[in-house]
Task: inverse folding
């Protein structure tokens, strides 16, 4: 193969990380300030200081762009280290969920996205596939470890348990609009241990 044939063809998309990072920040800012329905590719490009073509080289449409950005932000926050105990894992998970739900931008994005998803089945499906399912899979790993250590019963209903862990924080922060007080997460972990029939 000659040097000429190895050369990148003129016009080929070369995705520069710095531009991708600027676009990601712009998407998060636009979502936080204006919501999903009012977000446009034009506004994101303008805020990022790039042409619209830079967006379309990365994602075919607005929904794909938003889901990719939110997944990149949200899914790693659900990765939990093995603390060696169910209680330690639950406390770590609750702190991670709390940090996710109270993030300065995401705390504005999530309620809006939830409302939009309720009106838009395709968006709801995309949110579940890009964010919900991967985060729940990581949460399930925490519970599987506890089952293997003998801390949780083998017949544990994983789906119900995952709902039980995340729901109190979402309800308190986004429905009741009550802040998390010192000690609340530790107390919640203790209640969850009992609710999950943990063997301690």
Result:
């Amino acid at each position: 193969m000659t040097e000429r044939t190895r050369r990148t063809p003129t016009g080929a998309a070369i995705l520069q990380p710095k531009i991708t990072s600027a676009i990601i920040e712009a998407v998060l800012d636009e979502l936080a300030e204006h919501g999903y329905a009012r977000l446009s590719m034009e506004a994101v490009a303008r805020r990022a200081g790039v042409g619209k073509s830079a967006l379309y080289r990365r994602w075919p449409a607005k929904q794909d762009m938003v889901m990719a950005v939110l997944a990149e932000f949200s899914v790693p926050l659900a990765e939990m280290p093995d603390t060696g105990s169910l209680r330690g894992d639950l406390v770590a998970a609750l702190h991670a969920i709390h940090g996710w739900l109270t993030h300065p931008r995401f705390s504005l994005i999530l309620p809006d996205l939830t409302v939009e998803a309720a009106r838009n089945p395709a968006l709801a499906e995309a949110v579940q596939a890009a964010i919900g399912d991967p985060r729940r899979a990581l949460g399930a790993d925490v519970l599987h470890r506890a089952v293997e250590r003998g801390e949780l019963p083998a017949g544990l209903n994983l789906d119900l348990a995952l709902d039980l862990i995340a729901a109190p924080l979402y309800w308190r922060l986004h429905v009741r609009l009550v802040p998390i007080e010192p000690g609340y997460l530790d107390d919640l972990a203790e209640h969850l241990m009992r609710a999950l029939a943990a063997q301690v």
Q: What stands out?
A: The radius of gyration is 21 Å.
